[in-house]
Amino acid sequence: MPTVVLHLPHDLLARLASAGADGTVELTLDIRTGEPALTEESPLPTGPLAPLLRAGLLTSGTRLHLHQPRANRSATATVHADGTLTVEGKLTPFRSPSKAAFAVTQSQSNGWLTWRLADGRTLDDLRNELEQKEA
After folding, report:
1. Is the Cβ–Cβ distance between 74 and 86 less than 8 Å?
2. Fewest CB within 10 A of the end CB: N or C in the chain?
3. Count of alpha carbons within 13 Å of 121, Cβ hemisphere only?
4. Start-to-end CA span in the chain (Å)
5. Who wins on pLDDT, 14 or 110?
6. Is the pLDDT of residue 97 over 70?
7. Whole-prediction pTM
């Protein structure tokens, strides 16, 4: 039997809780990408990831991976349009990559070096790329 998995924006429950008087929240799903599309405009990104989002080096829905073989730890995080990260298995969104990494490792770590894109680049690599473009 096929399985359907829906990844919804982390703020969907808040939007549902603040629904209008009639209780309606409009949500559409683009089956070409699987990305949920809210009828409201996407929020402007804030926080440490905002420059990477504004430059197009990260996009909403980008998946980041943390893998620590010696500690037998791995995790996946999703970047959101507002600049937050959600980590699978964690309820709270994180404003910084390092706080998201701490939620997985339970130790201080530099999230800019810990989280990687599918192609192996770190968030720090993206930040350096942005600095080179702006120079």
Report:
1. no
2. N
3. 12
4. 53
5. 110
6. yes
7. 0.69
Can you tell me the distance from the alpha carbon of 102 to that of 108, in angstroms, rounded to the nearest whole number?
Answer: 6
Could you list the beta-strand ranges (E) of 27-108: 27-29, 36-38, 63-68, 73-79, 85-87
Q: In this predicted structure, what is the pLDDT of residue 38?
A: 47
Q: Which two three-digit tokens encode residue 13?
A: 């429950």
Q: Give 132 or 20, the one with higher predicted confidence.
A: 132
Which residues, in sequence order, are CB contacts of 109 under 8 Å at separation 6+?
98, 101, 102
**Lookup: tokens for 84:** 């937050």
What is the C-alpha to C-alpha distance for residues 17 and 91, in angstroms, rounded to an integer?
16
Write the CB contacts of 36 (distance below 8 Å, at least 6 apart in sequence).
6, 7, 8, 9, 12, 27, 28, 29, 30
d(CA 108, CA 123): 17
So what's the pLDDT on residue 39? 44
